[in-house]
Amino acid sequence: MPVSADVLDALRHVTTATCTTVLLKKGLRNTWVRGAVPIAPGQPRTVGPAFTLRFVPYREDLAGPQSWSSPRSTRACVEAMPAGAMVVIDAMGDRQAGVFGDILCQRMVARGVAGMATDGVVRDSALVAATGLATWCAGRAGPPAVAAMHFAGWGEVVACGGVCVMPDDVIVADDDGAVVIPADLAETVATEGTAQEDLEEWIMEEVRQGAGLPGLYPPNEETLARYRAKRGG
Amino acid sequence: MPVSADVLDALRHVTTATCTTVLLKKGLRNTWVRGAVPIAPGQPRTVGPAFTLRFVPYREDLAGPQSWSSPRSTRACVEAMPAGAMVVIDAMGDRQAGVFGDILCQRMVARGVAGMATDGVVRDSALVAATGLATWCAGRAGPPAVAAMHFAGWGEVVACGGVCVMPDDVIVADDDGAVVIPADLAETVATEGTAQEDLEEWIMEEVRQGAGLPGLYPPNEETLARYRAKRGG
Amino acid sequence: MPVSADVLDALRHVTTATCTTVLLKKGLRNTWVRGAVPIAPGQPRTVGPAFTLRFVPYREDLAGPQSWSSPRSTRACVEAMPAGAMVVIDAMGDRQAGVFGDILCQRMVARGVAGMATDGVVRDSALVAATGLATWCAGRAGPPAVAAMHFAGWGEVVACGGVCVMPDDVIVADDDGAVVIPADLAETVATEGTAQEDLEEWIMEEVRQGAGLPGLYPPNEETLARYRAKRGG
Amino acid sequence: MPVSADVLDALRHVTTATCTTVLLKKGLRNTWVRGAVPIAPGQPRTVGPAFTLRFVPYREDLAGPQSWSSPRSTRACVEAMPAGAMVVIDAMGDRQAGVFGDILCQRMVARGVAGMATDGVVRDSALVAATGLATWCAGRAGPPAVAAMHFAGWGEVVACGGVCVMPDDVIVADDDGAVVIPADLAETVATEGTAQEDLEEWIMEEVRQGAGLPGLYPPNEETLARYRAKRGG
Amino acid sequence: MPVSADVLDALRHVTTATCTTVLLKKGLRNTWVRGAVPIAPGQPRTVGPAFTLRFVPYREDLAGPQSWSSPRSTRACVEAMPAGAMVVIDAMGDRQAGVFGDILCQRMVARGVAGMATDGVVRDSALVAATGLATWCAGRAGPPAVAAMHFAGWGEVVACGGVCVMPDDVIVADDDGAVVIPADLAETVATEGTAQEDLEEWIMEEVRQGAGLPGLYPPNEETLARYRAKRGG
Amino acid sequence: MPVSADVLDALRHVTTATCTTVLLKKGLRNTWVRGAVPIAPGQPRTVGPAFTLRFVPYREDLAGPQSWSSPRSTRACVEAMPAGAMVVIDAMGDRQAGVFGDILCQRMVARGVAGMATDGVVRDSALVAATGLATWCAGRAGPPAVAAMHFAGWGEVVACGGVCVMPDDVIVADDDGAVVIPADLAETVATEGTAQEDLEEWIMEEVRQGAGLPGLYPPNEETLARYRAKRGG
Predict the structure, then answer these.
(1) Does residue B218 have a cis peptide bond before it, meaning omega lies within 30 degrees of 0?
(2) Given Cys at both, which of B166, C138, E43, F160 links C35, Cβ 3.0 to 4.6 Å?
(3) F-contacting residues of D 138-177, CB under 8 Å?
């Protein structure tokens, strides 16, 4: 069952810091995409179900410009991307060749893709940023993907930045980077994360007023009572 | 079309050094599995069509002992391995957990598997060596695969040690490590490699007799004529 | 004996480039914190005696949200930080989890901490920047420290970015990054560094006017005489 | 409460592979010392409570031959090692200088130390091996520790090979490498590990007889019944 | 024969993304300088023949402030740099010490150097940026080059960011980073690159209008005919 | 002035551990070749003046089998190697392609080369070992050097395993690895190293007899007096 629009909406108000904290409390430590940072400052938090792509290392007989016309090409893959998806690209952390450039990104915008997260890099990076596609990546490089990678396909379980990503897991990405939320935990993270955001906002205000941390953060019973009184009262 | 038994037999007499040289002459530089070394000295050169497995990083809700009974487990995979295969395991180069231990290796021996090559490590390594399964790996570690990895499946194109491996590519492994030969180049490598081995053996003998390298290695026309006279005469 | 306020003040006018040059002349090559860069452009040069923290890798029985209430928690540690200190955090270079987030940083501001330098990363990074705490780190990540690390304590000799840091060593941090000055060398670096800054400013002006480097930089006796005449005259 | 001699004895019959599997079942994934391999083949499994040492990077004013006579030197530390201990050395994974050489190792043998495990390397390695001290390390190097490290002290919580080690945790080391068992889990690992070793030995025999893996490994109820009948009967 | 000014001019209008694509079509995959990114956003694309420098690791008896006055110093080297050159510095990827600071960069500007690309880092980075010298590097650090490196000389074939660079190869650097074009391929890259830029601009416009990728990118014969009609018509 | 045969002879009795200790006392920390280990156990300590080679990354238009016949090829280089030399190969630490194979090594043996040390790997490794050439390297790989590297030449200052090596520096290699001794320090290292070996042998004997370390190692005045009495008496 796909994650509901309501849950996705709620997650747009939960930071990746909070998402990872809630996931940790559920026993999941390894949900953070290493290496994926915002391509530009100020991108809004972006949320969507994962649409996965996978690359393997290049082999000269496979990875060349001729592969761009193959039915299993990145071009065909872009045409299969659903609106609202967060595209997740397993580039094996390779930073020598850009997985996507401006033309493909422009087409993704046209298709309504929500954003892109990869442990690899992009090319034509200034133009990619200009397309407005929300992008989390490990940097930029000139060479085309085929200079270093062979496209293996889409819609599979993949590795991205040291994390396992399954199709339809929920990706939340913001200034800190990107987190993978297993689909069946998304609602829990949305609910508990929203509550935690509210609590931490209140705690932050207390700290701004000069309160010390012991008993406040994490809150002890007395603090929680005070918080509930203020918020719920 | 699978690679013929004759070609596989011929490749058993061609070193990985020669295989990679012939592949380079055909324009393929990236065919060497980084990190896979013989688990024990003295293993014979081993050759077979690739049977591929793929791991992704662990996620606590997926990768635990319970996964061992899943229909998509490594156990089910072992039962699908054909006799004569070289099992190639994409462990993402992870050296913190052993992909396979002695029980699975013993079963692979029973099934007639030719050998195993991985960019990861094995566990119960002394017992693995005792099973007699020819093994190329990046070392050894105690923890089970599920401590660090989730098994994604088998029979796919995979990355192994920085190389693209497709099912039925031919793997040749010896003291130097392991090379991936694209299936449709296997016969060429067998033929040209055999010829090169013979030539180099003759050159080595010349060097042992005190000959200098210029004109000899690589051989100029005169040297080649001398070689042909000796060998073909 | 702690480093005097005068020396700290003087060091606020010496670049880290100059500090490391003076230290090199005293025989110290290894004083540069690898990986710590300014969290935001335009942070002023920040100087203070080191207050050290140390993390070790996580272990599930130790590193969890419950540890936040321990008497040896990062919370208790923040309450022990003296005004004016440069907080130095040994995160073993781990970039998978943020050592501190916005609430702790806000409290550090309230306590008058001068700044923070770490070979790790921060979380809630946009909010951390908003607290105004001068911060040098290796990037940002969503997960809480406990997802990857166990807090070992404070006030010890630590490793940070490949450098040994002792409590009360002086930290100078600016656009280039952060340098560790052993406490008993701080006065020397302040004095010689101030002189060198002045000399280099004069040399830079000469170069701007079109002078060539030989004899000028490094200055020979004649150049030094000219410099002294100009400055001292 | 220290771990009992009986538990230590029992663990001498449990492989590190089994120890890590039991720990994983208890929720601990991160217990494996990365980089520590046996210095020589054939070392017996070695078990003991951890005696921890910690190094930080060198600083020329601290780390020199003069430091060898300091009261906080590695020499003084060796004299504090109790008989039976497994010495665990946090060398920050540095492979450029040997933490210990033959003279210190010989003295450790004289003191009855059980063995040594480090994420660093040793020097005078042939002579170290000759002392008979059971050693797990990341290789060998000529330079003395002071060429790259400053000794910080002993008896603290340390990081070793990516794992948290507390004094008196139990270290088990064998052909696969070294595992850290939290002191309060040692008895559980000994008990459950012993049982698992027996079960796996029986399963291995079944596999040797030609049995397939499904239902056998991991064992289903029927298999377990058969096993119990055989062993317990 | 040096590359003509016309070719250099033409390359100023070809992105590094396009340069690497054309080079790939000619069989060259390894032309991308890993690690060199723009020191500041908005630097114009910079092109010039390579003037190469090479560093090796430091040795205390060679690499110290005294080396700055040597006839083989970086100072003498700067005075040998021709106007219009792209200075390429092999720093072995070392990020612990800045290859150049503001004074040397200011002098390079005075000499009319086009720009600088290195796999190392710079120091006095804010001041380097202020000189206006177009710079691609791997970051910034305070320590002087001699803290980590010994200057080996200039005008040789060097390694930079994993790429072979020969004197007078053409360097093109822009937002994505820097590419090395062998001198005898520069004209080809200029010609084919210019054509490709025009084609891709037209394709991008098509995509902006809503066109799908299959048949468009890469263009099939019909698309090419349409393009030619539009552009050539 | 080349290092004398007497000094080279004396160094054959000084371990690399002792050489690096003496060099450290002279202020040189960075003299250890990272990554170079003996290709086979039991190689005798090998000493000789450095004959340096340098590789840079491959470029398809330069690095191919055709380069083997170039006048600047590795073949021509082997013919220039003097008897007694320690060949030092800067392979940039690349482990994907073997710098040399059995034929070149056999020729080196014929020319009387003392040994070879590299931060790269060798190919045809079993055959290389069979030539009897004393070899220190970072492992083995099948592909020829040209698959990953372009040969830049010989007789230059090079980087090898993180160390600066100048032609005619003295290389000492043994079980622990390889150290670079600047030519003008070789005699000092031979003299002081010989003395230190004798002292440490005596200390080791004391430890074997049960002596504790304080006062013994490092020796205080009383210990030194006892030592001198024993040895000099």
Answers:
(1) yes
(2) C138
(3) 139-144, 146-148
Mutation choice for D interface testing from B39, B124, B133 by most D CBs within 10 A: B124
Longest dimension (CA), chain E: 69
ipTM for the assembly: 0.95
Strand-pairing partners, residue C90, are: C54
Residue C85 has pLDDT above 80, yes or no: yes
Please give the pLDDT value at position E2: 81
Counting beta carbons within 10 angstroms of the beta carbon of residue F226, is it exposed (0 to 12), middle (13 to 18) or buried (19 or more)? middle
Q: How far apart are CA B81 and CA B51, in angstroms?
A: 7
Residue D15 has a pLDDT of 98
Helices (H), E151-185: none
- Residue E211 CA to residue E197 CA, distance in Å, equals 19
> What letter does residue C202 receive in the DSSP assignment?
H
A-chain residues within 8 Å CB-CB of C124?
Answer: 15, 17, 176
Contact call for residues E92 and E56 (beta carbons, < 8 A): yes
**Nearest-10 crossing angle of helices E186-208, E221-232:** 100
Parallel/antiparallel/unpaired status of strands E115-118 and E86-90: parallel
E95: pLDDT strictly greater than 70: yes
> How far is it, in rounded angstroms, from Cα E69 to Cα E156?
21
- 3-state class (DSSP) for residue C118: strand
CA quadruple B195, B196, B197, B199: dihedral sign: positive
pLDDT digits (tens, 9 = 90+) for B90-103: 999 999 999 999 99
> Which amino acid is it at C166?
M
Here the tokens at position E215 are: 């048949």
Q: Is F110 on the interface with E (CB under 8 A)?
A: no
Of F56, F164, F165, the CB nearest to E157: F56
- Copy the structure tokens of residue E125: 């980075």
Structure token pair of residue B178: 């392991």
Q: In whole angstroms, what is the distance from residue D233 CA to residue D212 CA?
A: 24
Of B29, B57, B158, the CB nearest to A56: B158
In the three-class reduction of DSSP (H, G, I as helix; E, B as strand; rest coil), residue B120 is classed as: coil
Q: Return residues 114-143 of B near D (CB < 8 Å).
A: 123-127, 139-143
Average pLDDT over residues C29-40: 97
Question: Model-level pTM?
Answer: 0.97
CA distance to A21, A202, E233, per residue, from A207 (Å): 20, 9, 69
Q: DSSP class of residue F169?
A: P
Instruction: Identify all chain B residues contacting D25, using CB atoms and an 8 Å cutoff.
Output: 65
**Average pLDDT of chain E, as a whole number:** 95
Q: Rounded CA gap, F47 and F3, in Å?
A: 11
Element (H, E) at C152: strand C149-154
Q: Do E217 and A103 touch (CB under 8 A)?
A: yes
Q: Report residue E187 CA to chain centroid gap.
A: 17
Tokens 């990861």: give the residue.
B120
| C206-E90-F180 Cα angle (round to 5) | 110
Q: pLDDT tens digits for F149-185?
A: 999 999 999 999 999 999 999 999 999 999 999 999 9
Q: Average pLDDT in the F85-113 region?
A: 97
Please name the chains neighbouring E, where neighbouring means 3+ C-beta pairs under 8 angstroms: A, C, F
F58 at interface of B, judged by CB pairs closer than 8 A: yes
> Cβ D182–C61 below 8 Å, yes or no?
yes
Residues 6+ apart with CB under 8 A from A11: A19, A47, A170, A172, A181, A186, A189, A190, A193
Please check whether residue D212 touches B, CB under 8 A. Answer: yes
Q: Work out the number of other CB atoms within 10 angstroms of the CB of residue A192.
A: 19
The minimal CB distance from B30 to the residues A59, A164, A165 is found for: A59
Beta-strand relationship, E46-57 and E149-154: antiparallel
| Partners of residue A152 in chain B, C-beta under 8 Å | 156-157
